[in-house]
């Protein structure tokens, strides 16, 4: 029987965009019942009621108190003997314990929870394979600049280097993909180390931290007055940096005098909740804006400053280019896609990112919200907005030409279904409250050109690590954090297969969403590259999947499933999935010989 998500967890933290956080459901199943006795470790007494001595607290309860101080109201986990005292503490602190089927899912869900709520996410996994299973999720959060804490179990300190169960050098493995990784040396230091991990997670651009807690350290109890338990709001300073004032003034001047300026809003615009400041800047100065990553949705579709299909033309012809909160990585051609003649400005939370891979004319290290609002306030007199009208009209003409060229594919009635038709139908299906999640290679590349979220924070993809398998855990975290929102997820069939068994978790917790599998029975992004490099005779080596009926898989697990082979049936199937009130999968058979332009232009094969 499904567990329902109806009882709000405690906590008063703000949700996205400063709205009161609706909070995740307070969910607990039989596995989280602490039972009649206090769980305790080898150093604990039978509890404070059995002795007249000092009040004691266990390591797991110290973890829970530290998480509560940070505003965390949900942890994602897969159980293990090394970590169960944390569950007991979470029950007492009113923190929801969400149990999944794979530790990678737990880590991805913690990443997503941070993105959706603006608070750090937390995953708790056992030692050894439990922690190594979570590595991919932590690495994804690292590249995506997502603040989360992974807590891993570890063998007892008393058995250090003796070959205890599931003993591995977790800290050594996690150090390269986290902002902070450490072992907790004593029970009294547990909450202190948790707080330290959160501080480091917000040092510069945010990212993940890792703590391993040896079993005897976690299970032991210590007198409360010997444990340092940092007080909420008093152990971590604000990390908001408004940028260098002289650089702010200089940027304002550059934009006022620019004839063909352009701005790209990246993921840090959402991370810093800079939507209002970003919109004010482009409207005040009449500047065309492009968006990538979590920055999508900063401007709604149809806004006169929202551009999507003319980015390459704009970067080739602009005189001032402002890149906000996105690195010069492969998505930007390592900076080479920006005109050498343009004045280039980069704004980023991380000093190390500014000017990396490409020289810039002006770099500003700071919080996008504060920097952009400061730039707008610095503009006085004539903003030059009227003079830039021809530039926006020029870009609109390029957009319209690209849109017209693509229309036949968007409305194609061909079978197998053209991927452009599928993503067009999904885009038409989205509402103001639909959070869109993309999990896949070629099929999600198609969607990136067509699907336009209608609100800020309503687009989610893995980020620059390009991790497949984020979809189901992202759905899980998003529906828990924002049960008021509809979640629509597009999967490649290969991507869904990686973490798809946690569809059962969505059923178990009664978390409805509309899922679509673009099924071509292939890892098509790789297949295209192999065909180009080795010829069509060898294009099917190591990338071909079975013809799986994912709709039947969904029904088997208690969800809603439907198969679509005719393009005219896509929209009705999506609507039936929405009305089902269940986790759903619409299995859409798409043309395996249709490739996204982004796939065909990728540089890894050239």
Automatic annotation (TrEMBL):
EC number(s) from the headed UniProt entry: 2.2.1.6
Cofactor: Mg(2+); thiamine diphosphate
Gene Ontology cellular-component terms listed: acetolactate synthase complex
Pfam families: TPP_enzyme_C, TPP_enzyme_M, TPP_enzyme_N
Family annotation (CDD domains): TPP_BZL_OCoD_HPCL (cd02004), TPP_PYR_POX_like (cd07035)
Positions of the Thiamine pyrophosphate enzyme central domain: 248-374
UniProt GO molecular function: acetolactate synthase activity; flavin adenine dinucleotide binding; magnesium ion binding; thiamine pyrophosphate binding
Record region (Disordered): 1-56
Residues of the Thiamine pyrophosphate enzyme TPP-binding domain: 439-588
InterPro entries to which the protein is assigned, alphabetical: DHS-like_NAD/FAD-binding_dom (IPR029035), THDP-binding (IPR029061), Thiamin_PyroP_enz_cen_dom (IPR012000), Thiamin_PyroP_enz_TPP-bd_dom (IPR012001), TPP-bd_CS (IPR000399), TPP_enz (IPR045229), TPP_enzyme_TPP-bd (IPR011766)
Keyword terms, alphabetized: Metal-binding, Thiamine pyrophosphate, Transferase
Domain Thiamine pyrophosphate enzyme N-terminal TPP-binding: 58-167
Biological process (GO), any one: isoleucine biosynthetic process
PROSITE patterns per UniProt: TPP_ENZYMES (PS00187)
Stated family: Belongs to the TPP enzyme family.
This protein's name: Acetolactate synthase-1/2/3 large subunit
Protein species of origin: Saccharothrix ecbatanensis
Source organism phylogeny: Bacteria, Bacillati, Actinomycetota, Actinomycetes, Pseudonocardiales
């Amino acid at each position: 029987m499904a567990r329902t998500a109806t009882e709000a967890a405690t906590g008063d933290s703000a949700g996205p965009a400063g709205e009161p956080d609706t909070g995740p459901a307070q969910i607990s199943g039989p596995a989280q019942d602490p039972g009649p006795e206090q769980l305790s470790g080898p150093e604990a007494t039978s509890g404070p009621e059995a002795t007249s001595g000092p009040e004691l607290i266990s390591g797991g309860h110290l973890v829970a108190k530290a998480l509560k101080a940070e505003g965390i109201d949900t942890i994602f986990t897969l159980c293990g003997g090394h970590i169960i005292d944390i569950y007991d503490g979470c029950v007492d602190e009113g923190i929801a314990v969400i149990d999944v089927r794979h530790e990678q899912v737990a880590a991805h869900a913690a990443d997503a929870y941070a993105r959706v709520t603006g608070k750090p996410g937390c995953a708790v996994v056992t030692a050894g394979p439990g922690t190594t299973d979570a590595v991919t999720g932590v690495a994804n959060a690292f590249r995506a600049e997502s603040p989360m804490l992974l807590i891993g179990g570890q063998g007892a300190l008393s058995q250090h280097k003796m070959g205890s169960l599931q003993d591995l050098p977790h800290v050594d493995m996690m150090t390269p993909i986290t902002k902070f990784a450490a072992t907790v040396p004593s029970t009294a230091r547990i909450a202190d180390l948790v707080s330290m991990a959160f501080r480091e997670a917000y040092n510069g651009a945010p990212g993940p931290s890792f703590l391993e807690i040896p079993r005897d350290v976690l299970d032991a109890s210590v007198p409360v007055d010997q444990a340092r338990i940092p007080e909420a709001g008093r152990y971590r300073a604000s990390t908001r940096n408004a940028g260098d004032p002289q650089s702010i003034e200089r940027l304002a001047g550059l934009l006022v005098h620019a004839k063909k300026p352009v701005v790209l809003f990246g993921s840090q615009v959402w991370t810093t909740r800079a939507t209002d400041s970003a919109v004010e800047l482009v409207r005040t100065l009449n500047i065309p804006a492009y968006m990538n990553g979590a920055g999508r949705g900063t401007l709604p579709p149809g806004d006169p400053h929202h551009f999507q299909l003319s980015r390459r033309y704009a970067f080739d012809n602009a005189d001032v280019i402002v890149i906000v909160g996105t690195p010069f990585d492969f998505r930007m051609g390592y900076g080479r896609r920006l005109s050498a003649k343009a004045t280039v400005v980069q704004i980023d939370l991380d000093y190390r990112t500014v000017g990396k891979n490409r020289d810039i004319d002006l770099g500003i290290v700071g919080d996008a919200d504060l920097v952009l609002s400061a730039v707008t306030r610095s503009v006085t007199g004539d903003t030059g907005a009227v003079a830039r009208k021809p530039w926006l009209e020029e870009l609109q003409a390029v957009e319209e030409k690209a849109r017209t060229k693509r229309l036949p594919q968007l409305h194609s009635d061909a079978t197998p279904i053209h991927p452009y038709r599928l993503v067009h139908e999904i885009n038409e299906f989205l509402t103001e409250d639909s959070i869109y999640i993309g999990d896949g290679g070629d099929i999600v590349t198609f969607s990136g050109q067509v699907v336009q979220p209608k609100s800020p924070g309503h687009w989610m993809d893995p980020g620059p690590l390009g991790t497949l398998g984020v979809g189901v855990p992202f759905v899980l975290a998003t529906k828990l954090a924002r049960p008021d929102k509809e979640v629509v997820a597009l999967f490649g069939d290969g991507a869904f297969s990686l973490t798809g068994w946690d569809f059962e978790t969505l059923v178990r917790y009664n978390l409805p969403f509309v899922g679509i599998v673009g099924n071509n029975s292939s890892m098509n992004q790789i297949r295209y590259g192999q065909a180009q490099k080795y010829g069509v005779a060898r294009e099917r080596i190591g990338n071909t999947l079975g013809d799986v009926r994912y709709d039947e898989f969904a029904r088997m697990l208690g969800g809603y499933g439907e198969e679509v082979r005719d393009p005219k049936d896509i929209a009705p199937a999506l609507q039936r999935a929405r009305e089902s009130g269940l986790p759903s999968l619409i299995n859409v058979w798409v043309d395996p010989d249709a490739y996204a332009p982004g796939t065909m232009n990728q540089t890894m094969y050239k």
